[in-house]
Specification:
Helix content is about 40%, strand content about 15%. With about 325 residues, the protein is α/β, with parallel strands linked by helices. Among the domains are: about 55 residues, no CATH class; about 180 residues, 3-Layer(aba) Sandwich (Rossmann fold). The strands form 3 sheets. Strands 5, 6, 7, 8, 9, 10 and 11 form a 7-stranded mixed β-sheet that branches. Strands 1-2 form a two-stranded antiparallel ribbon. The protein is rod-shaped.
């Protein structure tokens, strides 16, 4: 019995080394789980965590309940912000549709109240074409003001010293330099008389302006505008003409430049100067005469000089030129 036990123990000791764990056996155990399985497990875990995080972010933090996607209106007129859903939007649209199509007004009491300045009145314009164009205000009202309420325009023919001009807008440019007081004041008296006659021949729907000039320019009422030839305005113009006294030198170009600003049809240009326009002046006059006004020139003097520049001013515009001998000039009452 003792001998068998010893033999068994000896056999056991001989077998134990073969089953003891060594580094090589530990590596074999670790490699018993494949690498692809570990990688799959790791990626699956990470993917699950990402899904959980994204789900929380999409739903929002806190206890805000999910809302359906679509157009959302925000009412921020009060201290709090109110969100309107699509259902609210449809209800609002139905209300707006009803407001856009109100029921017809059937009783006088149902009519909307009149607003100040918008009282109902029969329409003045009832058609199209020529009648419509005539009923609309013209661009002349921007220049001439509200003095005349009739129809604007209408051509008329008027004259000064026998030179005629036809149109509806006239500008009279008159030299009032010191030399116009010579010959016993005859040039200025003649200019005044002819100007009064011409003004009285205009119709009240025609327009005019008067430009006196020497070294400076003086215009009727001192305003850059045309006036209707009403009886009252003509009387005021006569008073203006009588107050002008000849003095100073002569600046033709300054006066004509001022006259062109009124865009007239006809300009009557009276002076006792002997021309004095250069070629550059003639070209500038052509550029500034944008309304293509006809310039009728009247020159006073004892004898005509060889300077034809004043005549060229008239001819180039399609106007006329006349020379009046101051010694034989007839005045009304003489």
């Amino acid at each position: 019995m003792t001998h068998q036990s010893k033999s068994f123990n000896a056999a056991t000791r001989q077998c134990l080394p073969s089953i003891q764990q060594t580094p090589e056996s530990s590596f074999v155990l670790k490699r018993s789980i494949p690498a692809w399985a570990l990688s799959l497990l790791l990626h699956t875990t990470i993917f699950g965590i990402l899904i959980l995080v994204l789900t929380q972010v999409r739903n929002g933090a806190g206890n805000v309940e999910n809302r359906a996607g679509g157009i959302v209106l925000v009412d921020a007129t009060s201290e709090t912000t109110e969100y309107l859903s699509e259902g609210d939007l449809e209800q609002t649209s139905s209300l707006n549709t009803n407001s856009e199509n109100p029921p017809p007004l059937t009783a006088k009491n149902d009519l909307p109240p009149d607003l100040p300045g918008l009282e109902s009145s029969p329409g003045m314009i009832s058609g199209a074409g020529e009648s419509l164009a005539e009923s609309l205000p013209g661009a002349d009202s921007l220049i001439i003001g509200p003095q005349f309420t009739g129809r604007i325009g209408g051509k008329v023919t008027t004259e000064i010293f026998g030179i005629k001009g036809t149109g509806s807008r006239f500008v009279y440019v008159i030299d009032c330099s010191e030399s116009m007081a010579g010959f016993e004041f005859r040039p200025m008296l003649a200019a005044r008389q002819q100007l009064w006659k011409s003004l009285n021949s205009l119709q009240k729907n025609n327009q005019f302006q008067i430009v006196f000039y020497n070294d400076e320019v003086k215009i009727f009422n001192g305003e850059l505008r045309l006036y209707f030839a009403t009886a009252e305005t003509i009387e005021n113009a006569k008073s203006f003409i009588e107050r002008v006294r000849p003095s100073g030198g002569t600046d033709h170009m300054a006066a004509l430049k001022e006259a062109f600003k009124f865009a007239p049809d006809v300009i009557f240009f009276l002076t006792d100067a002997e021309g004095g326009f250069t070629d550059a002046d003639l070209r500038e006059i052509g550029r500034r005469n944008r309304s293509a006004a006809i310039i009728n020139a009247i020159e006073f003097g004892e004898r005509r000089s060889g300077n034809l520049s004043l005549e060229n001013v008239a001819r180039r515009s399609g106007g006329q030129y006349i020379f009046k001998n101051i010694n034989t000039l007839r005045l009304d009452g003489n």
